[in-house]
């Protein structure tokens, strides 16, 4: 595809952003919803059945965001550990709502058989502003590493560090939206001083496996379960999804660990990243949430059956 000819409205084409451009971008970002109302209030009733802890906090421009994790009550180190993360990108709504819905409806299903840890909304500032980046124009999902410059990523890495190498399953809940092409990828290209090359937004659900530690049977089990809830994304004309060749229908492989993506933090034996397409005419918001919940349950069922 050809590079986009119309430049992004912030920055100079071909030049990386500095502090002034980041500030100009931030000035365009508007708060549109409430982390306290949407997430913290939804977590509060879960305290009846789960242990809820604050694993960090973010303070941005006078706003305080406690970062909460929900854990199994009666955690036992000898049991398998299951990790669910959502809201790494704040605009990916069904990841957050799916994690919360899973906890409400199914969070106790593995009680006594496995430890469960869920971080429903990793990026609260971005959740409120329906953005991909954090306040500093950093993508948390390229910054999950020790010493991360993204506070959201650093806090989650610290939370999960004791579980690294001891986690059986980790599923990270995401969406791919039309705004990826209309806003977020053009902004990324401008920030990095590169030309924006348009791509095709996949219409449907798909998964991202780690190219360096593939688990194709695990990915297939999750895809097969979700296919009963919603449609699976087909490849584009080149046989790719977001520029990656298919491992199998609805599954792509990516350098998840090397790129600092969330699903690699725990080095789980079974790990995947979901992608739902909420802008599809064939999907409703509730179907997106249901697809996320179904993916979590299928991932857990497969992993526990192999443990």
TrEMBL record:
Species this protein is from: Pelomonas candidula
Family, per entry: Belongs to the peptidase M14 family.
Signal peptide boundaries: none
Domain Peptidase M14 stretches: 31-307
InterPro entries: Peptidase_M14
Name of the protein in question: M14 family metallocarboxypeptidase
Top-level taxon of origin: Bacteria
